[in-house]
Amino acid sequence: MAYEEILYEVEDGVATLTLNRPEKLNAWTPVMAREVRDAMAEAGTDDDVRVIILTGAGRGFCAGADMGNLDNLATGGLPENVLSCTEGMNEEERRNGGAGRFSGSDRPGFRHQYAYFPSVPRPIIAAINGPCAGLGVVLSLFCDIRFAAEGAKFTTSFSRRGLIAEHGISWALPRVVGLANACDLLFSARKFEAAEAHAMGLVNRVIPHENLLDEARAYARDLATLSSPRSMRIMKRQLWESMFQNLDEALQIANSEMLVALEGDDFKEGVAHFVEKRAPVFTGR
């Protein structure tokens, strides 16, 4: 697929997916939605990809939904499909509810248009290089790990547009930053910077702007080289699914997965490279 509004490249086991409307601070459009979904599906099934980085071109990560689209909604009425979970899906995905291209989770919530990242069977790192607003915050929350550039600004935006907690942010945000912080950020829609985001646990690391992508790629290459892709795939599913499970259910799944892992090639290689004091050569099996 030829892309108009994103860039996609693969190097050293890492797929970098760049939102590419820098003149609009990478504001989100239906075209971008389709292209990101396609690229995530490609990365999730490519044996040469073990980790995914999501970032933005220019000085912004994602300024939220394109204001032109919001203006059309405000003045032109509500299209029938505005709340559909099928934006960005191909015809086959629409027929089967969004499953098929993503194998990390079959949970219905993780098939929706902005909440499907947990179903991509690769770790996804958000490299937040600049302004991250509204839908941009939603997208970052459904990534597995978040790095932010020093001084990057965040805002949930929704309350200042007369909207509500959209697209699963009411589920994801309190699980990341706690209920009180989520209430603050959603009710006020105030702007805050990367340092505060780090203090409340919204981002894992704050990195000088000029080093952000290099450090994100170095971290991703370490995962791609030193960690079993099968281990990461199963762990990702365990972690996201655990938010719907009690301890007994999580333990039962872990015990079952452990038996499978012990029969796998990656476990054998994990022991062999440690004993032989060499770099691992994992296959993902």
Topology diagram in text:
Blueprint: E1 6-11, E2 14-19, H1 30-45, E3 51-56, H2 67-76, H3 91-95, E4 124-128, E5 132-133, H4 135-141, E6 145-149, E7 153-155, H5 169-177, H6 179-188, E8 192-193, H7 194-199, E9 205-207, H8 212-226, H9 229-242, H10 247-262, H11 265-276
Parallel strand pairs: 2-3, 3-4, 4-6, 5-7, 6-9
Antiparallel strand pairs: 1-2, 7-8
Helix pairs in contact: 5-6, 9-10
Give a written overview of the molecule.
With 285 residues, the protein is α/β, with parallel strands linked by helices. The protein has helices spanning 30-45, 67-76, 91-95, 135-141, 169-177, 179-188, 194-199, 212-226, 229-242, 247-262, 265-276, and strands at residues 6-11, 14-19, 51-56, 124-128, 132-133, 145-149, 153-155, 192-193, 205-207. It starts with 5 loop residues before the first strand and ends in a 9-residue tail after the last helix.
Give the helix level as a range of percent. Answer: 40-55%
- Using only C-alpha atoms, the radius of gyration works out to 19 Å
Q: Estimate the strand proportion.
A: 5-15%
User: Secondary-structure element order, as H and E?
Assistant: EEHEHHEEHEEHHEHEHHHH
Count the domains: 2
What strand order characterises the main sheet? 1-2-3-4-6-9
- Count of DSSP-assigned helices: 11
CATH fold name of the largest domain, please?
2-enoyl-CoA Hydratase, Chain A, domain 1
Class from secondary-structure proportions: alpha/beta
Distance between the termini: 28 Å
Mean pLDDT: 90
> Main sheet, how many strands, which sense, barrel?
6 strands, mixed
User: At CATH's second level, what is the architecture of the largest domain?
Assistant: Alpha-Beta Complex
